[in-house]
Amino acid sequence: MYEYYIYSQLKKHTKACKSFHMPGHKACGDFKVKFKDANLDVTELSYTDNLLSPDGAIAKAQRDIARIFGAAKSYLTTDGSSSGVLALVYCASKRGNKLIVFRNSHQSVWNACRLFGVEPLIVQGAESEGVLQPPDSAIIEKLVSNDPNIAGVLATSPDYYGNVAPLAGYREILKKYNRLLLVDEAHGAHLAYGDKGYAGLYADAWVDGAHKTLPTLTQGAIVSVGNEELVPSIEDALSMFRTTSPSFPVMASVEYGVKYIANRIRILNDAKTAVSDFKAQSRFSFYENADWTKLLLDCKPLDIAPGAVLAKLEKKGVYAEFADGRYILFYLSPMVRDKELANLEKLLSVIVEDKKIQGTYREKPQIPESERSYSFQYALKRQCEWIDLDKAVGRMCAKNAGLAPPCIPIVVTGEMITAATVKALSVKSTFGLKNGQICVVKKW
What is the pTM (predicted TM-score) of this model? Predict the structure, then answer.
């Protein structure tokens, strides 16, 4: 059984201490009444250890997490997966000025490329059942075999839809050409406990958003390194991108989440079985994927708009992750129970019988392949302007724009806006648009 070092250390000392240090709430008064465990919210003290240079409880926690995750080194972060993604792209920038990324990459990937002057080479697979698939290995090999300036691949796996990229195939190709395989596994910390698609089996370095699928507080994440050559660069990066005032409760919860499942693996297995049984017995159709924590109700066969179902669920106090125009994502974790799933089935069965919402389904726009003439970095350096979306065909995009949720860019900075782009963006739920206008590179 793994010990909870950080939490135990906090509980041991904070009961008797008086706070003449940060934070300002001092764990007293009305704040203490409203936030019961305020005394766990401390700073770097003689007994708490220091995340930026750990040699006590934090060091022990990171050592155990690395062992559980099969990593050479693992690092806690309280800044979500985003700071970890910054660290990955920083490492890549030391190897080349180009990086292969997926179109459905998180916003932090685009931000990191912008910060470090890295040119993102966008790859995407075909759509299947309205969902963008991970790109094939052949696309990766074609790119890296022809360009020595490509540092490697930053893969998103699994994605919001539970699609797991063919990491084994990527690894084989990238090893052949001596390039890096980096993985944004923000949605897949639970895969570390024996699943085939786990990034730690293949990646040089990867990021896990522990708070997304483990019993961990929001913003708790882990950066792990498989290739020890990257340790100095990762540590250099994290010293720049992580906060110097990390939340000790969040750190303690990351260690707790990882070890809670490792100590009680049956909980995870029971949850997986419950989800599998639920899908087999349900009257509803779900998107087929490789990640059991992403339960996606397909509203197309029901001929009901997912937004209408979502609204009725919320009136009953049930909140899903999002509805994207076809699917409703119920984001699960090892903490889900068969009774909860059974209750969800009953509630959905009542909702879909409501005649007021039947016949409301409309096909969501497809994600077109955009035309690229100049580069991401080129467009960032040019002056820009906002113009009406319907007048933007043939112009170069200056700010990413796409569908929200799940925030997949339809057009990326540096790509040319096509008629298909405009059509896909002519819906209500988008990001990157402002009052019906899109930002484009200004004409000379």
Answer: 0.96
DSSP 189: G
Dist. CA 268–CA 440, nearest whole Å: 47
Q: Name the token pair of 382.
A: 């040019």
The answer to whether 415 and 397 are in contact (CB under 8 A) is yes
Angstrom distance (rounded) from CA 379 to CA 387: 16
174 vs 273: CA distance, rounded Å: 35
Residue 119 tokens read as: 């040119």
pLDDT digits (tens, 9 = 90+) for 221-267: 999 999 999 999 999 999 999 999 999 999 999 999 999 999 999 99
Q: Give the C-alpha separation, 356 to 87, whole Å.
A: 49
Tokens of 432: 């990157």
β-pairing, 131-132 with 150-156?
Answer: unpaired
| Cα–Cα nearest to 221, from 245, 257, 192 | 257
15, with CB counted inside 10 A (0-12, 13-18, 19+), is exposed
